[in-house]
Amino acid sequence: MAKQIVNAAPEAINKGVVSVEQQLRVERFLNYEAALMDEHEYDRWMALWTGDDITYWVPCNSDDQDPNTGVAIIYDDRSRLLERMMRLKDKAAHAYRPRARLIRNVSGVVPLSVTGEELEVASSFSLGEIRTGTENIWFGKCHYVLVDTAEGFRIRWKKVMLLNNDEAIPNLTFLV
């Protein structure tokens, strides 16, 4: 996120590219998305995505590595993301049981640009996880392309840059 903010056009930082009301709507939407992920509300989380041409990307080793030529922790289109949701919801998938208890804080929400109905947004998060007696703390940055629809914001593209994406990490049994 820091790179996106540093490279943002000056008006995105100095004056803002959205109204205060729009900024609050974006912040509420991202906090709602975080709550759905924390509560394992996978179907409701999937309903936040729009269109068939979506991307959910968690890079590995470098925030800027091309996912088509390098390794990614997650690089899902709609069909892969739906498969991931089926695995996460499957009560017989022992690797995902018991479910992790999660809480995350979303902060540093900065709208970077607006193009028509699309809004590019950067944010940061901290995520606490407890599962099978093990506690983990995750930190990261998110980069979104949101679409402002009649039903509210929807996600077209999301990139989650884990701070430790160049380290060995345990199995992600939840959404980041």
What would you note in describing this structure?
This protein has 176 residues and is an alpha+beta fold. The chain has one domain (2-162): Nuclear Transport Factor 2, Chain: A (Roll), CATH 3.10.450.50. The protein has helices spanning 2-6, 10-14, 20-38, 42-46, 78-89, and strands at residues 55-59, 72-76, 101-115, 118-131, 134-149, 152-162. It has a six-stranded mixed sheet. The protein is globular and about 50 Å long. The two termini are 15 Å apart.
What can be said about this structure in brief?
By secondary structure, the protein is α+β, with helices and mostly antiparallel strands. The chain has helices spanning about 1-5, 10-15, 20-40, 40-45, 80-90; strands spanning about 55-60, 70-75, 100-115, 120-130, 135-150, 150-160. The protein is about 25% helix and about 40% strand.
